[in-house]
DNA sequence: GCAAAAGTGTTGTTTCTACACCCATGT
DNA sequence: ACATGGGTGTAGAAACAACACTTTTGC
């Protein structure tokens, strides 16, 4: 109803994590917060809030994220600005939406309650505003970008096995991948490098641990890489997986 | 200096056209407008203006575009929202930037004067604000997207020869393409369809005229295709090239 | 030994690339 | 006839996909 010249500006974020699913594989999940005022009171919505005068857009995304869900993402990128006239029933609101990835261990720290909850990405309740459309777009971007960039490690800890990495791809793309070809592709891209350590405690041959080669930053970000993806390099917490790591460098390592 | 909670919201557009270059090939050009007030008075800047309360983001882009350069683009898509704190010296301004393509004949209608001028894309003057960065990003997007989508016809008229289409690719990607392979790729993608007409008046074998198959809309837009690219389908004006078209359907046509 | 996943090798298919060559028109 | 780009054919290279097979651990 307001006749202000400059519409209200808000920032929201679609956050993704992977969590163990029912059938042994991982499934995509995202956190929603329940609205506590009109419009759409009681409905689930994306975490977000108004942009304040002295913060960046990405800063605003991080801040509202932390405030509503207490999450700190490992990857954060702008998704799209939504400004349809009718997206909010009363006032005119333009939302600049970000999307983010968090590692599983970080996601565990969420305090879930009546107003904050993780939902499986393709079993969402009715959402407020146009948030359903926004989530669909974010999902499309995630799936598309996974195939030509190195964002997958946003879901993982500092080190990981190629099987874990493959599981990320399989969960997001929703299709099985050939382990042999996957290994070759990953090692061939140079984006991933063996640490020399191995993971023991599995009931089979201990797999090698890998980490991302941060020096390799292929041209998939564009001239805005320094602007859009400052959070890509946020170091992960030490892995809190239930496996132990041993350090007997094997002969078959790629680069020691 | 303003302490408003909601920053000012502006919309700008990076518009591209192709025009005949010095060496016989085409070159990318974009229109800039001269600023007539502080800050950056006298500097060249992207066309744009404030978002008003009763218009869409894309509408605002179209409106300001028409007002400042009297251009109507054939393709319009959101590029990015720029919101750095220091991008304007005095007030806080968040700019939602679009990028657009116009056909050559449409571009001819620009009324160039002291305050509106086309510049070759990689020979720009000093620009106001962060517009240099914005143009670089738009250029990157154009070049990237050209390779996996069907936006090239945004530069062309309703019908065109494959040589004209190839010229678009060569000018934007700045590298020569093999005519034979280009033809096969284009025909194989199904995005382009022969009209049956041919272009006469050249001093060699008359090439076939093609048009875009509008029914083919591959999944390169995402769930927002209906939202982001409403201008993609704007029909072009009848071709005003200096060639004549004849209509003798030849036997070697692909589909009549 | 057996199961199970790690890791390597191989083969056939598809796609890409370079380039040769014929075709149809204007001059 | 000849120059010029339109249009087609094709052989080699590279990338991809499917799947067999060997290795190393826990049990």
Automatic annotation (TrEMBL), chains A, B:
It comes from Alpinimonas psychrophila. PROSITE patterns: NUDIX. One of its GO terms (molecular function) is 8-oxo-7,8-dihydrodeoxyguanosine triphosphate pyrophosphatase activity. This is 8-oxo-dGTP diphosphatase. SUPFAM superfamilies: Nudix (SSF55811), Winged helix' DNA-binding domain (SSF46785). Keywords: Hydrolase. PANTHER family: ADP-RIBOSE PYROPHOSPHATASE, SLR1690 PROTEIN. Its EC number is 3.6.1.55. It holds the Pfam family WHD_NrtR. Residues 6-143 form the Nudix hydrolase domain. It comes from the Bacteria. It is an enzyme of class 3 (hydrolase).
């Amino acid at each position: 109803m307001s006749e202000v010249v400059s519409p209200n500006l808000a920032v929201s974020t679609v956050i993704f994590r992977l969590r163990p699913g029912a059938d042994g594989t991982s499934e995509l999940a995202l956190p929603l917060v329940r609205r506590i005022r009109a419009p759409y009171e009681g409905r689930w919505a994306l975490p977000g809030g108004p942009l304040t005068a002295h913060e960046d857009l990405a800063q605003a995304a991080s801040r509202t994220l932390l405030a509503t869900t207490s999450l700190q993402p490992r990857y954060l990128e702008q998704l799209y600005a939504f400004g349809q006239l009718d997206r909010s029933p009363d006032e005119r609101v333009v939302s600049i939406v970000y999307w983010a990835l968090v590692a599983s261990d970080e996601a565990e720290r969420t305090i879930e309650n009546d107003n904050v909850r993780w939902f499986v990405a393709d079993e969402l309740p009715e959402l407020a505003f146009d948030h359903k459309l926004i989530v669909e777009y974010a999902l499309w971007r995630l799936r598309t970008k996974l195939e030509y960039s190195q964002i997958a490690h946003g879901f993982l800890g500092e080190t990981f096995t190629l099987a874990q990495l493959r599981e990320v791809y399989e969960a997001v793309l929703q299709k099985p991948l050939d382990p042999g070809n996957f290994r070759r592709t990953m090692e061939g891209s140079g984006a991933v490098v063996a640490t020399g350590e191995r993971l023991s405690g599995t009931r089979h041959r201990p797999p090698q641990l890998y980490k991302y080669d941060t020096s390799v930053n292929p041209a998939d970000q564009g001239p805005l890489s320094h602007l859009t993806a400052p959070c890509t390099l946020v170091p992960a917490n030490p892995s809190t997986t239930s496996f132990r790591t041993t350090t007997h460098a094997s002969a078959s390592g790629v680069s020691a």
